[in-house]
């Protein structure tokens, strides 16, 4: 490891060690998104209408409720990984990058928490 | 130290240097549709679930917003982003196996993905609105 050129300063250090995990999770969640969002797409097309009664009765059933919870977890996780790459590509200042990734992680947990609460609330019959 | 040795050194060329090809377009489209959905798509998803949990009145507000011209534009945009991102994402999964890098094959699938995304969007809305 030298301190001259860019490549000289990193040569011999090996990988950052976290890249493969991120890359694999992006693929796993992509497969999860493919299955769950296609479930939602087909469900939207198969439902007789999209009125409150029809949709809330549909999403209260066990399989759709679990499928949409999985959809939320998978898509938010996938979006978190994707937006992290966006931040790392375009936000170069260290403090801003840290703040952006910190905010991203908070939203990536807050969004699914709200969504899961909503689905459970409907499924347990809040308006039945 | 962070920038030591980088002053006035040649950098690898960026977008404006290369001759444009479908593979560049589909790559940029994949990022734009993905990051677009992360904001608009997940936002509408949360609104939809929140409106359902809130009851008939809040669902009516959601339905009103989504059936205005801007609402339809957002929904069509999200569905197009999804189908495009799905097609280019499936392309990425194939490329991950090491297949599809021959120049002609790569160009063909780079052209097929965004077109398939548009066709699937049209098919989805046709089935939804004409049933």
UniProtKB/TrEMBL annotation, chain A:
Cell compartment(s), UniProt: Cell inner membrane
Quick one: a GO biological-process term for this protein?
A: tricarboxylic acid cycle
Domain of life of the native organism? Bacteria
Source organism per entry reads Novosphingobium silvae
Q: What name is this protein filed under?
A: Succinate dehydrogenase hydrophobic membrane anchor subunit
Recite the UniProt keywords alphabetically.
Cell inner membrane, Cell membrane, Electron transport, Heme, Iron, Membrane, Metal-binding, Transmembrane, Transmembrane helix, Transport, Tricarboxylic acid cycle
Tell me the CDD domains matching this sequence: SQR_TypeC_SdhD_like
- Give a short account of what the protein does: Membrane-anchoring subunit of succinate dehydrogenase (SDH).
Which pathway does this chain act in?
Carbohydrate metabolism; tricarboxylic acid cycle
GO terms for cellular component: plasma membrane
Its membrane topology, per UniProt?
A: Multi-pass membrane protein
Q: Which cofactor does it need?
A: heme
Q: Which residues cross the membrane?
A: 28-47, 59-79, 99-124
Which GO-annotated molecular functions does the record name? electron transfer activity; heme binding; metal ion binding
Q: Describe the protein's quaternary organization and the partners it interacts with.
A: Part of an enzyme complex containing four subunits: a flavoprotein, an iron-sulfur protein, plus two membrane-anchoring proteins, SdhC and SdhD.
TrEMBL record, chain B:
Annotated Gene Ontology cellular component terms = membrane
Q: What note does UniProt attach to the cofactor annotation?
A: The heme is bound between the two transmembrane subunits.
Give the record's subunit note: Part of an enzyme complex containing four subunits: a flavoprotein, an iron-sulfur protein, plus two membrane-anchoring proteins, SdhC and SdhD. The complex can form homotrimers.
Where are the membrane-spanning stretches?
37-60, 72-94, 109-130
Q: Is Heme there in the keyword field?
A: yes
Output the SUPFAM superfamilies linked to this UniProt entry: Fumarate reductase respiratory complex transmembrane subunits
Query: Could you give a single Gene Ontology term from the biological process aspect?
Result: tricarboxylic acid cycle
Query: Which cofactors does this protein require?
Result: heme
Q: Which InterPro entries match?
A: SQR/QFR_C/D, Succ_DH_cyt_bsu_CS, Succ_DH_cytb556, SuccDH_FuR_B_TM-su
Query: How does this protein sit in the membrane?
Result: Multi-pass membrane protein
- List ligand-binding residues for heme: 85
For this UniProt entry, the molecular function terms from Gene Ontology, in alphabetical order, are:
electron transfer activity; metal ion binding
Q: Which UniProt keywords apply?
A: Heme, Iron, Membrane, Metal-binding, Transmembrane, Transmembrane helix
Q: Where found, per UniProt? A: Membrane
Please report the name of this protein according to its UniProt entry. Answer: Succinate dehydrogenase cytochrome b556 subunit
Of which family is this protein a member?
Belongs to the cytochrome b560 family.
Describe the task this protein carries out.
Membrane-anchoring subunit of succinate dehydrogenase (SDH).
């Amino acid at each position: 490891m030298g301190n001259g050129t860019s490549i000289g300063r990193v040569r011999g250090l090996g990988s950052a060690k976290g890249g493969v995990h991120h890359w694999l999770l992006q693929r796993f969640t992509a497969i999860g998104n493919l299955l769950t969002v296609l479930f939602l797409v087909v469900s939207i097309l198969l439902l007789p209408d999209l009125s409150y009664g029809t949709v809330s009765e549909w999403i209260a059933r066990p399989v759709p409720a679990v499928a949409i919870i999985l959809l939320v977890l998978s898509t938010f996780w996938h979006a978190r990984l994707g937006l992290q790459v966006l931040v790392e590509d375009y936000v170069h200042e260290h403090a801003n990058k840290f703040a952006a990734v910190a905010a991203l992680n908070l939203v990536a947990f807050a969004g699914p928490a709200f969504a899961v609460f909503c689905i459970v609330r409907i499924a347990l019959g809040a308006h039945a | 130290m962070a920038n030591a040795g980088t002053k006035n050194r040649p950098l690898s060329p960026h977008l404006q240097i290369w001759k444009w090809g479908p593979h560049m377009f589909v790559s940029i489209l994949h990022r734009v549709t993905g990051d677009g959905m992360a904001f608009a798509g997940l936002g509408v998803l949360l609104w939809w679930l929140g409106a359902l949990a809130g009851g008939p009145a809040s669902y009516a507000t959601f339905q009103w917003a989504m059936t205005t011209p801007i609402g339809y534009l957002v929904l069509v945009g999200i569905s197009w982003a999804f189908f495009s991102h799905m097609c280019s994402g499936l392309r990425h999964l194939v490329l991950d196996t090491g297949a599809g890098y021959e120049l002609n094959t790569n160009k063909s699938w780079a052209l097929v993905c965004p077109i398939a995304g548009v066709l699937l969007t049209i098919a989805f809305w046709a089935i939804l609105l004409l049933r």
